[in-house]
């Protein structure tokens, strides 16, 4: 027997950038994201009573060292919850277009939470799966659900979970990833966000920004207003990135091509095309727009970035789990 789960990645429109409790993975603020259909992880988990340790592979490569200990720490939580101390074999495949650099711990830990908990005999609700995925990676909390998803920061393990705002996003909202190559080593989001919490003088203001943006973003979603959603997401992303520049030591995820993309989208916007950008803990840029404007945006970006580096994604579904 084995259990296989598929989870899609998500991109935050109101960002999570900082923890209040690093052990329980409680965030400082709420956040809100769009799950994408184009990028996902399939994870197969098998109980392995003969093994004295867990075994992992990602895309056919064995996982060892720090990455493996992080996975074991997570599976220990599953063992504790289920009362089943057996070890696991975990095989993950990331479905991300070749070398796009968009692989994400969000889909990875959401899929692992779903597959491992079921394989260990638990039958968790989606809310409880979201709480469990949170222990692996903050953004994974939201990848249990499809469409537009809100993560309530909560005050403890019980109250920090995600829930969908609308799982069927049928008003034209679309996202295009601009793949920007990087060979530079980035600051991990885990380390980066902690540095921002501890050293950025802007951090207290960020908490207020997010509280305000959550209300505004939910109103824009209720109004099915793609233009307003994009505008708010861009503003929120820029303010998140101000927390990296204002940390001590300051750092940035932007590269030259990131800035080039931002300027190009700004100029398209000034020409009357409704398009906006958001960036995460890396140089890639995601464009937010209404699907009717896709061709026009592609035509403007392709000569600079190359058509193969533009990946269009629709809103995606929530987690699926099946036992083989
Ligand atoms: C987000 N990001 O809301 C934010 C915006 C990146 C920028 O969540 O330490 O991999 O595992 O909780 O979830 C990336 O951070 O960090 C992230 P951990 P995670 O999507």
Q: What is the H-and-E element order?
A: EEEEEEHEHHEEEHHHHEEHEE
User: Which molecules other than protein and nucleic acid are bound?
Assistant: ligand 2P0
Strand content: 25-35%
Through-space gap between termini: 6 Å
* Low-pLDDT regions: none
Percent of residues in helical segments? 25-40%
What would you say about this model in short?
This protein has 324 residues and is of the alpha+beta class.
What does this structure look like?
Helix 2 (105-119) packs across helix 3 (126-136) and helix 5 (203-222) runs antiparallel to helix 6. The radius of gyration is 19 Å and the shape is globular. It is 38% helix and 26% strand. The chain is α+β, with helices and mostly antiparallel strands and 324 residues long. It is built from 8 helices and 14 strands. The strands form 3 sheets. Strands 1, 4, 5, 6, 7, 8, 9 and 14 form an 8-stranded mixed sheet that branches. A 4-stranded antiparallel sheet has the order 11-12-10-13. The model has no long low-confidence stretch (mean pLDDT 96). It binds ligand 2P0.
List the helices and strands and how they pair.
Elements: E1 3-14, E2 19-21, E3 26-27, E4 31-47, E5 55-58, E6 61-62, H1 65-82, E7 88-95, H2 105-119, H3 126-136, E8 148-152, E9 161-166, E10 173-178, H4 189-199, H5 203-222, H6 226-245, H7 256-270, E11 275-279, E12 285-290, H8 294-305, E13 310-313, E14 320-323
Parallel strand pairs: 5-7
Antiparallel strand pairs: 1-4, 1-14, 2-3, 4-7, 4-8, 5-6, 8-9, 10-12, 10-13, 11-12
Bound molecules: ligand 2P0.
Pfam family, one: MVD-like_N
Organism: Candidatus Limosilactobacillus merdipullorum
Keywords: ATP-binding, Lipid biosynthesis, Lipid metabolism, Lyase, Nucleotide-binding
